[in-house]
What does this fold into?
Amino acid sequence: MLLFFYINGFAQVNASQKKLDSLLTVNQKNQRTDSTKIKILTEVYRQYMKMRNVEKAEEYLDKTIQLSHDKNLKKFSAIAYYRRGMMYHGRSDYQKAEENYLVAVTEFSSIGNLDMEAGTYLNLGALYGSIPDYAKSLEVNQKAIAIYEKMGNETDMASCYTNISTIYQRLGNQSQALVYMKMALKVFAKEGENVRGVAVVYELIGTNYFEASDRELMEMNVLPNQKVKLALEYYNKSLKVAESIDDKGIIATVRRDLADLYSSTGQKDAALKSYQKSLELSKIGDDKEAYASTLYALGNFYQKENDFENAISLLGKSLKIAEENRFLDIEKDANLGLSTVYEKQKEYNKSLAYYRQYIAARDKIFNEDKEKEITRRQMQVDFNVKERDYLLKQKLTEGELKRQQQELTLKKQQLALSDKEKALDLLTFQKAKADLDIQRLAQEGKFAKAKYQAQLTASVKDKQISKQNQQIKFDERIKIFLSIASFLILIIAVVIFLSQRKTTRLNKIINNQKRELEQLSKVKDRIFSVVSHDMRTPVNSLISFMQLLEGGNIEQEKLNRYAASLKNNLTYTSTMMENLLNWAASQMQGFNPYLESLDIQYLTGEVIHSLQDSADQKKISIKNLIAIQTFCKADENMLSLVIRNLVSNAIKFTPGGGSVEISSVDLGNQQEIRISDTGVGLNPVQLSHFNKPGYLGAGVSTLGTNKEKGTGLGLLLCRTFVGLMDGNISVSNNQTGGSCFIITLKK
It folds into this structure.
C-alpha cells in the first residue's frame, strides 16, 4: 500500500512538472504583450503556487501585475494581488497577506467588481481574527456585509456571521457567539446539509459548548452536565458533513476536538485514535500551527500515559515547529511537557533545562502581553464601539421603518379627523339649511300643497328611472358573467391543449429513452459475449504455455512461435480491457472532462510514438501534418484515447505498405482533426450507422488486414468521449480509398 501511494504521488509530481514545462514553453514562444500573454503568465504563477514554489510564484506574479498595469487591465492585477494574499495567508505570513489583500480591495473597487471586493474583505476579517485584531476584523466584516446585502448574497454574508461569532468566542462571550453561529447555520443550510459552511459552523458550535463556563451555559439555557453531550453531538455532525465532502482540514480539526473531549471524559482509547487520525491529516496540509498543536496534544496525551518515548518524539517536533514559526503558546506548552517527561524519567538536568526554556517562553508571552496591554484594551474599546455602531445601524434601520409606519398611521388619523371635521361642517350646513327651509315653509304656506304635488310627481318619475337603471345594471352583469364564462372556457381549452402537447412530448421522450435502453442492452450483451469468449482464450493459452515451460521439452522455434502468439492474444486482451473499463466508467459518469488548451501536434506525436511498433510491423507510414502550436479545448486523457483508437483502427484496416495521415483544419472558433488512411474503408451501412444521431451500440468486431482482432468498442468510446468534450465526430470514405474520421472541437 505504501508503494502505491509513493508511485501515485510521484506520478502527480511528474504531471505537474510536465504541465508547468508546457506552460513555460508557450510563454517563451509568445512574445506579444497583450491579454493573451497575461493569461499565460497567470497560469504559470498559479502552477507554481500549486507546486508551493513561492519564489517562482512571486516572480511571475510581479510580471503579471506589471504587464496588467501597462495595458490598463486591472482585472488581472487585482486577482493576482488577491491570490498572492491567499498564498501568504495560508503560510501564516499575515503582514504580506494583509498588504496584498488591501491592494486587491482598491483595484477590485476601481473596476466595480463588488463580489471580489467583498470576498477580499471576508479574507481580511479571518486574517485579523488570527492576529488577533478584533476591532479591524469587525470593521472589514461590516464592509463585506454591506456589499453582500447590496448584492443579495446571503451565503457569503453567512461567512461574515461566522467570523463575527469567532470574535465573540475568542473574547469569551460564548452566548453571543452562539447567536451569530445560528444565523450563519440558517443560511448555509439553505444550500443543503452537505456543504463546507455547515461543517464549519457545527464544529464552532461544538467548541462553543465545550469551552463555555457554567455561567455562559446558563445564559445559553443549557445545564452544565449537558455540555459534553451537546459538544459531542455537534462535533459528530461536523465530522459527518466534512467526510461527505472530503475536507481534510475540517476533519483534522474535528478529530482533535473529539480527542480533547474524549480525554477530558476518560475515554483514553477513543482519544488516542482521534489524536492519531488528526495528526495524520494535519501533516498533509499547509497549516503549520494546526500541525504543531496536534503534535503537542498527542505528545501531552502520551506523557500523561507514561509513554515517554512517543511523548518526547512528538513534543520535540512540536517545539521545533513552534520555535521556527514563533508560535509562543505552543513553544511554552511543549517545553513544559518535555520538562515533565524528563522529570518522570528522573533525568533532572534535562527537565530543568526545558523548564528554564518554559520560563523564558512564558516571560516572552508575558512581556509581549505587558507591552501590548494598553493597545489590547484600546482594541477592546474600539471593538465595543464598532459593535455598538454595527448594532445601532441595524436598530436605526428597524427604527426608521417603525418611524415611517408611525408617520403613515398619524397621517391616516389626521385624514380621518379631517373627514370627520368636514362631515361636521356638512351637518352644520344642513341644519342651517333646514332651519332656513322651515322659515321659508312658514312664510310660503300657501304654496305647500302645490309643492307637495310636485314632489309626488317627481317621486313617481324617480321610481321609474330607478327601475330602468336597475334593468340596465342587470343586463351589464349578464354581459360580464357571459364574458367571464367565455374567458374561463378559453383558458380551460388552452390548458387541455398544452397538457395534450406535453403528454405527446413526454411520450416521445419515453420512446427515445426506450430505444436508448434497448441499444444499451445490446451493448451489454455484446460486452458479456466478448468477455466470456475472448477472455477465456488468452487465459487458456497462457496456462498451456506455462505447462509447456514446466515440461521443459520444447524447441526454441516452437517457444518463439507460441510466445509471439501469446503476446498478440494478451495485447488484444489488454486493449479490450482498457476499452471496456473506459466505456464502463463513462457510462457510470465516472469521467468528468477537464477541458484545457492542448497542443494537438504534441499530443498526436505522443500517440504516434506509442503505436509506431504496430505500424512498422505492417510497413505502414504515419504522417503527422498538424502544424506546431495548434491548440484546442479538450481533456488530455480523453483526446489521447480517441486519437489512439482511431489511429490503431487505421493501422488495423490498412494493408501493408499503406499510409495514415493526421492533419488539422482551422475553422475560426473550432478546430478540425482529420485521421485518414489508405485502408479498406467502411461500407455505406457502417457509415450511416456511425454518423446518425444517438449512436450508442457496439458493432461486431471486424478482423483487420492481418487478421487482427478487436472488441467493437473503440468507435463507441471515441463517440462517447468526443461528446463529453462538447465536440463532434463523423466519418467518410476517401475518394482514393480508405476512411477519414473528422473530430471537431472548440478552441
